[in-house]
Amino acid sequence: MKSTRIKPSPEMSPIQLQFDDNTLLPLLFGEHDQYLARIEQQLGITLVSRGNRIAITGPAGAAEVAREALELLYDRLKRGIIVDQGEVDGAIRRASANDGTGKGGGGASMGTDAGEVVIHTRKRRIEPRTPAQATYIEAMGAYELVFGLGPAGTGKTYLAVAMAVSLLTAGEVDRIILSRPAVEAGERLGFLPGDLREKVDPYLRPLYDALYDMLPADQVMKRLGNGEIEVAPLAFMRGRTLGHSFIILDEAQNTTPVQMKMCLTRLGENSRMVVTGDTSQVDLPAGARSGLADAIETLEGVDGVTFVNFTDVDMARHPLVTRVVRAYEKSERRAKKVQDQGGGR
User: Fold this and answer.
1) Vertex 130, ends 25 and 45: CA angle to 5°?
2) How many Cβ atoms from other residues are within 10 Å of residue 184's Cβ?
């Protein structure tokens, strides 16, 4: 593929891309050119396709982002990776974070070397869509305890489950333990209908959903049945030592410091643990300290522990969700500023 700039100017930068494999273009453009339309809508530029060429017209920065996004998507197609709307949105976010330079910010290159950072499962080949996701995947392969921190929709849990399934099917761990605190149930858990599993399953459903995305349904059921995969509330971890396991503690912001310490000290021989959470979304009673916030402070600088921070740039959900998150963060900063000013009087 060749990229040629035509008559550059500070205002408008017409760019023409030429692709060398015409058979990939329908997949790149999407049905009825829907992916091109999405890029135009997101970036405020114009894309015109003629044969194996695309002309990009628009403000210089946005045109560069569109160019890089299209090149990223085309590169994925050449490597046999299916492109869907999520991939298109991810390519736009990644190119925007790179400012169209091809150099990511988060400590991991997301240019042509991005294919080296990949997770293989029975059903999917999963590659990072943002620099932070690449850093996260690399961290899970290098550290025994990884904290994935940031807002919902950034892939923290999904990628952790993917890594766990990949290591289990490769025989590098013997089992997967997936856990969440059922804090929403509180003292009312006993009043919910059904047996214990039926009571807690609603709080663990996101973990099941991720599993079914990585493995065939019969494999999920078989491995749940024989104990190779265990999905359980955090309380079930007490008193256990988990060896040769990949342990994921999800929604960790809803643990207390005592619960967090209990969970972290379950780590046994040849085991890894990933802790995910968002310190801005704590559902604990007012005034209760989050075990995740406490762990971040306590474990800073501890050998073998690393923290990967995600932001709204990494969100893989509907673009409106990103705008909602940003609006809430702005409101929270404004409220904190008012509170700080009031406390200083």
Assistant:
1) 50
2) 13
HSE at residue 290, side-chain half, CA atoms within 13 A, is: 17
Closest CA to 72 of 31, 26, 115: 115
Q: In what order do the strands lie in the sheet with 305-309?
A: 229-233, 175-180, 245-249, 272-277, 145-149, 305-309
Residue whose tokens read 């760019």: 15
Give the burial class of 58: count Cβ atoms within 10 A of its Cβ; 0-12 exposed, 13-18 middle, 19 or more buried: buried
pTM: 0.71
Chain-centre distance of CA 299, in angstroms? 23
Q: What is the pLDDT of residues 283-306, one digit of tens each?
A: 888 889 999 999 999 999 999 999
* DSSP letter for each residue of 169-184: HTTS-SEEEEEE--TT
Asked if residues 148 and 274 have their Cβ atoms less than 8 Å apart, the reply is yes
pLDDT > 70: percent of the chain: 81
CA distance 101 to 322: 23
Per-residue pLDDT tens digits for 318-340: 667 667 777 887 887 787 777 77
Torsion of CA 152, 167, 120, 71, to 10 degrees: 50
Beta-strand pair 125-126/119-120: antiparallel
